[in-house]
Design brief:
The chain has five helices and six strands; from the N terminus they run E-E-H-E-H-E-H-E-H-E-H. It is α/β, with parallel strands linked by helices and 133 residues long.
């Protein structure tokens, strides 16, 4: 497993910018890349790690202690709902935002301990606010 973060630094001279450690957990590499591209439109800075399944997300949560996790629901090995439960049991201060295409997962995500629920394809401002607030 490669643990080095992708460094995302936008507008480093902006004094109101927030610097966070972010983990993006999604089995689709194109979705992870698109999410990173969307976050580039913000004035914030982030060190970003990527996980391709729920088990990897739990392992990375343990090793890098991110501030925020963007968690997909449907992933191999361990789904995002179960990964959220495990992470919240061990590290309750990590903010987890569940992102999926399916509104039907909202109740399960929140019951698992997710701090927020977003639909993929929603507003960029909503994503940036959820991640950096």
């Amino acid at each position: 497993m490669w643990l080095a973060p992708v460094s995302l630094t936008i507008n480093p001279m902006n004094e109101t910018a927030k610097n966070i450690r972010l983990l993006i957990a999604d089995d689709n590499a194109a979705t992870r890349a698109a999410t990173i591209a969307l976050l580039e439109s913000s004035a914030h800075q982030a060190a970003i790690w990527e996980a391709a399944d729920g088990e990897e997300a739990v392992q990375l949560a343990a090793s890098v202690q991110p501030d925020v996790i963007l968690m997909d629901v449907q992933m191999p090995k361990l789904d995002g709902i179960q990964a959220t439960k495990r992470i919240k049991q061990c590290w309750p201060a990590i903010k987890i935002i569940v992102m999926t295409m399916y509104i039907t997962y909202r109740a399960a995500a929140l019951a698992a301990g997710a701090d927020a629920f977003l639909l993929k394809g929603g507003s960029v401002d909503g994503l940036i606010t959820a991640v950096f607030s």
